[in-house]
Amino acid sequence: MNNKEFIADLANRTKMSSKEVASLVGAAVSAITNELVEENAVFVPGFGTFEVKKKLERVLINPVTKQRMLVPPKMTVSFKPNTALKGKVKNT
Beta-strand (E) ranges in 2-87? Predict the structure, then answer.
C-alpha cells in the first residue's frame, strides 16, 4: 500500500476528504518525528512503540582486503510492535 492508497483508505473509513486526511497524517508523522529527534519514545496504542537507540562504536573487517575499519556510533530508530498487533499478524 502506497501513500495515496493509504490516504484514500483512511478518507473512506473516516468520511473525511483526502486533503483533511493527508493533513492529519502529515501532522502525526511530524509529531512522531519531532519526539524521536528529541530522543523520546513514542507509544501508539494498539500499534507499538517507536524509540531511538544508540548503536555503539564497532570494528568491522573487510572480508576481501582484511582491512579493519572503525564504524562510529550512531542513533537509530527501532519499532517494537504491540502484542495485540503481533497476534493479529500472526493469526493471518
Answer: 42-44, 48-55, 58-61, 68-71, 74-81
